[in-house]
Amino acid sequence: MARKSRHSFSLSLSPARFSSLLLFLLLSIPRASAGGHDYGDALRKSILFFEGQRSGRLPPDQRLRWRRDSALHDGASAGVDLTGGYYDAGDNIKFGFPMAFTTTLLSWSVIDFGRNMGGELNNAVKAVKWGTDYLLKATKDVPNALYVQVGDAYSDHNCWERPEDMDTLRTVYKIDRFHPGSDVAGETAAALAAASIVFRYRDPPYSRLLLDRAIKVFDFADRHRGAYSSSLRSAVCPFYCDVNGYQDELLWGAAWLHKASRRREYREYIVRNEVVLRAGDTINEFGWDNKHAGINVLISKEVLMGKANDLVAFKRNADGFICSVLPGISNPQIQYSPGGLLFKAGSCNMQHVTSLSFLLLAYSNYLSHANHAVPCGGSYATPALLKRLAKRQVDYILGDNPLSMSYMVGYGARYPQRIHHRASSLPSVAAHPAHISCKAGSRYYLSPNPNPNLLVGAVVGGPNSSDAFPDSRPFFQESEPTTYVNAPLVGLLAYFWAHP
């Protein structure tokens, strides 16, 4: 169980006193940097990171030039084209579940904060499309099959080699009506639906294709219910095993389909299945495995606009989420490090930091437009306070922390040098044209030297609950970047660039 925050106080305060005291706690946490941050530069780099994670044939406008084409025969063993998409982290597997979540959050970032992205909006949209182009390939055979993974994780993790050299098994894994996977299918439907909003006016035919495919994938997910980690356990566990169940992904997919299509059937689905699919569970969890906090915040926007009185339970849950993450309130699941970083037990803490901070910011905007605040134990948390907490987390990532270290590679004067990432840590093809075999890469993995290739914009798993960070490849929980850490950060950085 996570330790309680070192700050604690009674909630029996006036609203003004509560807000001012909480703000004092946020501001009084020690900071290493007195100056402001270049959020525009950080935004550009956070999007550039996705180019370093690309699989397949790279386009002419590829900016991270040390990467080359890779995995050009993915899907061939199954008679399908599954080239493209993203490697999720520092390995060379294409896991469909986190890739779909990444695409959903990139899309949400563009939908809510695209107007704040300036000249980076086009690059953000390209990052979304690199994900959706692959997801369209993976769902082409729905309802007969949905391809959810390319590559054998065990053989891949037994090697340390560049994606360009990859000679491990590229096994194709799928779900179908006899081997269901409502979790990964529901998330894929959400990704396609969310992206259809991104392209609604930019590319209407493509947007219609995405929405049509989202509808089919969601129908498949709902008709053939089950967890993909049961159907494909030996392939996906313990890597992206869905321990939370598939129910939240069904609600999540329906919520995005309603937002994208405005079809009443999806709203009725949400109302009808709210209790059955446990909408109120784990209100402060949000990530590739657990969508509950995201569902509640997403649906609450319509409640706050006065358009969905039948969905008020979701707003109550969203309010509960807000109260549960405020520092100074005793909560068994949330704590803050001495330096002020939100911390949840488990691997890759930064995924919680960026995703929960994104929800804080999104909900604060929804509340602002409705002129609302969140009641917490007889007091209120204002939208301004939520923005301040989200900004504090972003600033910690960028260097306002006890180590004066940016946890984004390439940003600031000091950042991680030895990230757990195969392509970054091995010599590039340009520097070392000869093939580097499976075990030959081990000496680079164990080397104390900095990575030769800068994976610009990569945000690593981050420090522990005491603000300590080893900067060592074997400490993968702290030093490995992932696409789903960066995806919500894109929206956060865009907003704070426009509202420093």
TrEMBL record:
Top EC group: hydrolase
Signal peptide range in chain numbering: 1-34
Any one of the GO BP annotations: cellulose catabolic process
Residues that span the membrane, as ranges: none
Active site, renumbered: 420, 471, 480
Keyword line: Carbohydrate metabolism, Cellulose degradation, Glycosidase, Hydrolase, Polysaccharide degradation, Signal
Entry EC no(s): 3.2.1.4
Highest rank taxon of the organism: Eukaryota
Domain Glycoside hydrolase family stretches: 39-493
A GO molecular-function annotation: cellulase activity
Catalysed conversion reaction: Endohydrolysis of (1->4)-beta-D-glucosidic linkages in cellulose, lichenin and cereal beta-D-glucans
Similarity annotation: Belongs to the glycosyl hydrolase 9 (cellulase E) family.
Protein known as: Endoglucanase
Organism from which the protein derives: Dillenia turbinata
